[in-house]
Amino acid sequence: MQQAQPSTAQPMDGADYLRDILRAPVYEVAIASPLQTMKRLSERFNNQVQLKREDRQPVHSFKLRGAHNMMAQLTEAQKKAGVIAASAGNHAQGVALSGSRLGVKATIVMPRTTPAIKVDAVRGFGGHVVLHGNNFDEAKGMAQQLADEHGYTFVPPFDHPQVIAGQGTIGLELVQQNGHLDYIFLPVGGGGIAAGVAVLVKQLMPNIKVIGVEAEDSACLRAALDAGFPVTLDRVGTFADGVAVKRIGDESFRLCQQYLDDSITVSSDAICAAVQDIFEDTRAISEPSGALALAGLKQYVEKHQLKDKQLATVLSGANTNFHSLRYVSERAELGEKREGLLAVTIPEQTGAFFNFCQILGDRAVTEFNYRYGDDHLANIFVGVRLLGGQEELDNILRDLRQAGYPVEDLSDDEMAKVHVRYMIGGRPLANLNERLYSFEFPEYPGALLHFLQTLGTHWNISLFNYRNHGSDYGRVLCGFEIGDKDLLAFTAHLRELGYGWKDETSNPAYRFFLSKTTD
Questions:
Q1: Residue 316 among the catalytic residues
Q2: Any catalytic annotation for residue 61?
Q3: pLDDT at 144
Q4: Which residues are 465's β-sheet partners?
Q5: Would you state the pLDDT for residue 220?
Q6: Which of 33, 61, 63, 252 is an active site residue?
């Protein structure tokens, strides 16, 4: 990780932030969003669970509050010169709408990989879009360059006192709408909303516990808390793209460190389950990052056995890519521990499948993939519906092992869930000196060609599977014929490629279903 020491600028104190939040002119463009009780989830957890509906904002996200608060307080000269921002989503729309309402030219630099629906939304709100680069960092670099060339004011997505104060108005509404709250759960990406709400709540009602929630694969707050100051993560996951931030802001971290009571991280599967919970209770369709805080609330309640508490969380955005819903649907049951995935070896003989199903009993089989084997044994990929969560899954594994079945639990195996379950049924006809790698593939023209030019012209590709779940990045699983003497050179080419990658050769799902041998 690249490390950066905290700023030495004189910081604002809690009273300063309270004053600025109370004076923030966000309601020139935003609404006081409703706080809705989630009846189904409240009954399930024996707590009152309430959802702050920031998806009801004109841009379907809370980001409008911070952008407008900062832009409304620019000098007349700054407004005349115009503003610029870099964003692939919610912040872009907030800046564009605020610019339109304030009569300020707003230029938004967006990566070329940004889905057309988001680009069109920014243009629809009056923003001037510049498409540049293949990721956020490249877009941000261009935005800063244009700001220097044209005198635009750069509007950051989270790390600015007035942006933080704008987001803090959510906290003011929460304590006004329910003065008896015990806990508030907030999403953390760059830290703007968590910092703003926490500093407000702790000034007015310090008895309320404020908890930050991060995605496991982009936990920049956790890394900063461990180090004592903001650090830059080497890479972040892109599923919850609204919080896919490598480095928390300096000012937002200072406030989070001082005012948050606790923080928690959650998996992508848990986020998917929270998206489903929101839909079932409200019929709203959240984007993954929008459901992040609810996923944290659920996990925190179970971890600390909370009962009869008043809990609030924020549905922070609903600008989801429709095609990502397929992935969410597939993973929600796993995130809720309502489904288990197993790799089981059974004898290649008449009645073997029946005998196996007898052990499962009355449990519903959600998925079953089988292919005839050539060594008197068959490896099957099985999904099982669970009513008793992890405890029931543990009982199934115990029963199968006691009956003599070799079995692996693949419920938390990312490669198995993303790729292998769609590839069951094929092993190579001959022994291969094969190594297996997973990649995060940027979704832009020429990405596959770049991959093949860097790796495919040097080593034979023996397996290839691609999965797109609606993000800016696709998921690729690829096998290569590589001798031990070539491994060092191959690794050098992987670094040259510049994509996120992981060696999956020892993965049990690969051993069960795709490799020539199971040794």
A1: yes
A2: no
A3: 93
A4: 477
A5: 94
A6: 63
